[in-house]
Amino acid sequence: MYQCCIFDLDGTIINTIHSLAYSISLTMEHFGYGPIDEDHTKKFVGDGFKKLVERALIYSGDDNLSHYEEALAFYEDTFEKNCLYKVEPYEGMKELLTFLKGKGIKIGVLTNKGHERAVECVEAVYGKGFFDLITGEGNGVKTKPDPSGAFMTAEYLHAKPSECLYFGDTNTDMRTGINAGMDTAAVTWGFRDRSELEAFHPRYIINHPSEIKYVFE
């Protein structure tokens, strides 16, 4: 029986695509490039903001990343101002989380979003103290798929990796769970398609948060 559930943030518990696409588009436009649409943003995110900026610049034609350092700083400032732009929980997610809490399951967030923005975003949508732990990039935590953040979360929540179920919507999340020795639950409502997730043979593939409840009943 699982004692702990660890959730990715973007594309898993919160739909943040509008804020991400808006912020990276403003960044690209600042350097004379066109906006990045949401479909491309979904492909560029998942590995931290530095990779997002890098991928967006290359897509926009800056193959030598001549604007990279400036763009990183501009994006950080822009995203700080706009990280809550049109964010919303996915249908059924709050009900699932409340259900898990009622079963005594610890719940944590592990994301490659910067830690301060992650806390701000999660608390804006779910309220302060709703999750037992929120961990974002920074403060010595390596970006996923490095498993150290997953191990740290499990230890903090007094669970063994084998007692944790890791939820995510990208290949990065699936690899994180595998690297940490945790069962994975792939969610299809996020930023990547089902085939990307199936390639990693997750323990569960769900199309709606309610579909996983039976595991805990």
Automatic annotation (TrEMBL):
<dbReference type="InterPro" id="IPR050155">
    <property type="entry name" value="HAD-like_hydrolase_sf"/>
</dbReference>
<dbReference type="InterPro" id="IPR036412">
    <property type="entry name" value="HAD-like_sf"/>
</dbReference>
<dbReference type="InterPro" id="IPR023198">
    <property type="entry name" value="PGP-like_dom2"/>
</dbReference>
<dbReference type="InterPro" id="IPR041492">
    <property type="entry name" value="HAD_2"/>
</dbReference>
<dbReference type="Pfam" id="PF13419">
    <property type="entry name" value="HAD_2"/>
</dbReference>
<dbReference type="InterPro" id="IPR023214">
    <property type="entry name" value="HAD_sf"/>
</dbReference>
<dbReference type="GO" id="GO:0005829">
    <property type="term" value="C:cytosol"/>
</dbReference>
<protein>
    <submittedName>
        <fullName>HAD family hydrolase</fullName>
    </submittedName>
</protein>
<dbReference type="InterPro" id="IPR006439">
    <property type="entry name" value="HAD-SF_hydro_IA"/>
</dbReference>
<dbReference type="GO" id="GO:0006281">
    <property type="term" value="P:DNA repair"/>
</dbReference>
<keyword id="KW-0378">Hydrolase</keyword>
<dbReference type="GO" id="GO:0008967">
    <property type="term" value="F:phosphoglycolate phosphatase activity"/>
</dbReference>
